[in-house]
Design goal:
alpha/beta, Rossmann fold, Four Helix Bundle (Hemerythrin (Met), subunit A), 3 domains, 16 helices, RNA-binding
RNA sequence: GGCGGCAUAGCCAAGUGGUAAGGCAGGGGUCUGCAAAACCCCGACCCCCGGUUCAAAUCCGGGUGCCGCCUCCA
């Protein structure tokens, strides 16, 4: 049994060895999108982070039960629907579909369950009834509120001072709370809002109760991991803990994980600020794997700044990976090299990768180990340090296998190298207004000149192509070109 | 104001007690008809001031700067 993974637990504020409740199994719940619009790249970063975390837990042999919800009943959805004149449930369903498309494009693995609030009203109603029964919630004119004063550990997760929180809170008009910090479990319906029958009259769930009810439905009363963006820590997750533990008397979640923010031009990006880049728009400009690579370039808890330069760097890195894979696959020729000794210690890169990921999922470190494998493969292909061709082949084959294993955890390098490179070139050519037919024509002329040993003409044509933003590489298989505008 | 986080080469970014991973950009090489790609080499005393220690980027105290949460938000 390898040493346990270390996870930074928001609950305790430190890294802890990960011990799931049931050995070998992980129950993880990630707060999913509120579907009132398209997801933005900040959402995408969080979901990608937990995507890689789940993949790694599986890589380490855990049986993972992965749930990520859709919040499809919510104030913002109702507002968006009112603005557009659409039915709120329908609008939400539309954005659920859009999310599924975006998630596929980003190569996110499917959670085992993706529950929607609208499908779980009975669970939620039962949950609220239980809280009322236990005397930690109260009804007030068709609303139901959680009584924070009945849960002494309130604010422990987010490390807040209860008195100061109380001092700062204000009761919104129309709310019937006993205490400002109390939060709504159930909201009485206003005309035109989606509503369901309940013992307290027609209404709809408050925001926080859904996650407690749905996570318990699918994962039981105690979660191993609960994840989400930093901003959900308070009040959302705090409230989840309060209502869940008040209902069951058991710990709600053992490890809380919070993902850092994606900044846009030095400022936080959020739908309310309006400085939002939609995921689907970003994917028009950048390769999905390059976007993932960008997300993985820093630790999941650190802030990450979105910029064209960073994206371009990530795409360059992916290009390097794929160009190397193309060479390696060519060299290996799909042949089974068979067992035998290998050169050096290729397995050390895998050990490096696992050490990085075991340490609170150190994405940047993991990416570094992947780079090491590529440098090693390139050396073996281009400058073999030993003469024994079979030895080199076996070493390459092992590295290639390791790359596959690591890349499948990171969700990278899942394309055919040639196809990926061609797609990138086409996108770049389009972006720079490069006429591909013209390039091919000049390339043909240059090849003819080279065949005739007319190097002066060949060089002139190379310069001409360069002026177009095209660089040409002569390889044994003929010339290859790519878009590389002067930087 | 309260709570939390961060400050590492031109830029991005790992490393959390023993003299600094990786990527981009830059310089020098190898290779090449010329190139490109690839590979190799070169580059930081880790925000400032104190302290602990044989030893600190790494721990403690203070300062400065930036960011997030405290209201919907991944």
């Amino acid at each position: 049994m390898p040493a346990p993974i270390q996870i930074y637990n928001t609950l305790t504020g430190q890294k802890e060895p990960f011990q799931p409740l049931v050995p070998g199994e992980v129950r993880i719940y990630v707060c999913g999108p509120t579907v009132y619009s398209y997801v933005h790249i900040g959402n995408a970063r969080t979901f990608t982070s937990f995507d890689v975390i789940v993949r790694y837990l599986r890589y380490r042999g855990y049986r993972v039960h992965y749930v990520r919800n859709f919040t499809d009943v919510d104030d913002k959805i109702i507002k968006a629907a009112q603005d557009s004149g659409e039915d709120p449930i329908q609008l939400a369903a539309r954005f659920v579909d859009a999310f599924a498309e975006d998630a596929r494009a980003l190569r996110l693995i499917e959670p085992d369950v993706s529950p929607r609030v609208s499908d779980h009203i009975p669970d939620i109603v039962a949950f609220i009834a239980k809280l009322l029964e236990r005397g930690v919630a109260y009804e007030s004119q068709g609303d139901v509120y959680f009584a924070v004063s009945k849960y002494p550990a309130y604010a422990r997760l987010s490390r807040r001072n209860l008195d100061e929180l109380r001092a700062g809170e204000r009761v919104q008009p129309g709310e019937q709370k006993r205490e400002p910090l109390d939060f709504a479990l159930w909201k009485a319906a206003k005309p035109g809002e989606p509503a369901w029958d309940s013992p307290w009259g027609r209404g709809r769930p408050g925001w926080h109760i859904e996650c407690s009810a749905m996570s318990m439905r699918y994962l039981g009363e105690t979660l191993d991991i609960h994840g989400g963006g930093m901003d959900l820590l308070f009040p959302h997750h705090e409230n989840e803990v309060a209502q869940s533990e008040a209902a069951t008397g058991k710990p709600f979640c053992r490890y809380w994980m919070h993902c850092g923010f994606l900044d846009l031009e030095g400022a936080k990006m959020s739908k309310s600020l309006g400085n939002v880049v939609r995921l689907r728009d970003a994917l028009q400009r950048v390769d999905p794997e390059a976007l993932r690579c960008f997300f993985l370039s820093t630790h999941y808890r650190s802030p990450l700044a979105f910029s064209d330069k960073s994206l371009a760097d990530a795409e360059l890195r992916m290009e390097y990976f794929y160009e190397t894979l193309r060479r390696v696959d060519e060299r290996l020729g799909g042949q089974d090299v068979g067992p035998g000794p290998v050169h050096g210690q290729p397995e050390r890169f895998l050990a490096e990768f696992e050490a990085a990921m075991d340490d609170d999922f150190n994405f940047a470190g993991a990416l570094g180990s992947l780079s090491g494998m590529f440098a090693a493969m390139n050396e073996l292909v281009e400058r073999p340090p030993v003469r024994d061709r079979a030895l080199v082949g076996r070493t390459l084959a092992q590295l290639r296998r390791q790359v596959r294993a690591v890349a499948s955890v990171l969700g990278l390098l899942e394309d055919d190298p040639a196809a990926w490179l061609l797609r990138r070139r086409e996108r770049a050519a389009r972006a720079h207004g490069i006429d591909v037919a013209r390039v091919e024509q000049l390339l043909g002329q240059r090849q003819a000149a080279r065949a005739a040993k007319d190097f002066a003409t060949a060089d002139r044509l190379r310069e001409e192509l360069r002026a177009l933003g095209v660089s040409v590489m002569d390889t044994p298989q003929g010339p290859v070109w790519k878009v590389s505008p002067p930087r």
